[in-house]
Specification:
Elements (H helix, E strand, L loop, with lengths): L6 H22 L4 H22 L4 E2 L2 E2 H23 L1 H4 L12 H28 L9 H28 L3 H15 L13 H5 L3 H13 L11 H21 L1 H6 L1
Antiparallel strand pairs: 1-2
Amino acid sequence: MREPRNPLAISFAVWQAIFLREAIDRLFDMRAAWFWLLIEPALHIAFITVVYSAVRMYTVGGIDVALWIIVGMLGFFLFRRTAIQVMYAVDSNRPLFAYRQVKPFDPAIVRAVLEAFLMAIIASVILAAAALLGHDSLPRDPLLVALAVGGLWLFGLGYGLVASVLMELVPETEHILKLLMMPLYLISGVIMPMASVRQPYREFLLMNPIVHGVELVRQGFVPYYHVVPGVDMAYLYAWVLVSLLLGLLLYRRFALQLVMK
C-alpha cells in the first residue's frame, strides 16, 4: 500500500493543479486573451509617453522619460494585477472547496504566483521592445530591482488577502476597493513625478508604500535617478509584513465563512 503523503506534498499538488487551471483560464478564457494581458500596460505606457512628448518633457529625475514611465508603470501593474487577482481568488474558486485538500489560501497564493509569472513575461517583452527603440532598458542594480519588485508583489498579495476577506464579510466594500484603485494610480508616482509635488503634500503621498516601491525600481534601473528624499525600502517591507500578517490572520479566523458562503 502507498504511504500517505505529508501535508506539504499535498499542498504542492493542490497548488500545481490550481496553477494549471488558472493559467488556462487566464490565457485561453477568450479569443487572444494573452494578447490583452500584454496590450493593456503597453497602451498605458504609450499614451503617457505621448503626453510627455507633447509637452516637450524628455527627462524625469535625470533619466529618459520613456524608461521612467515604463519602469514605474510595470511596477504598479504588478501590484494592481496581483491585488485584484487575489481579491477574487476565493469567489472564483469556490467549487474547489468541496475537496477537503483545498483551503481558501491555496487559490490566493497560486493566483499571486501566476500573476508574477505573467508580469515577468510581459515586462521582458516591453523592456526588449524599448531596447530595440534605442532605450537603455537593462537594470544597473538587479538586486535593488528584485527587492523593490518583490516588495510590490508581496504588498499586492497582502492587500488582496485582506480585501478578499472584507469583500466576503461585507460585500459593499467591493465598490470602495474598486474606486480606491484609480486614486492609487494617480498618487503612486506612476505618471506624476513626486519631485514636482510641493511640501507638505509630498509627505502625505510618501505615506503610500507603492510610491517607495516604484521609485526604488527606477533607481535600480538607473542609479543616478534623483529619488525624492524619504523613499525607504524598509517602509515598503513594513507594509508588506503588516498586510501579510493581517491577511493570514483574517483567512485563518474566517476560513469556515469563506468556504461555506
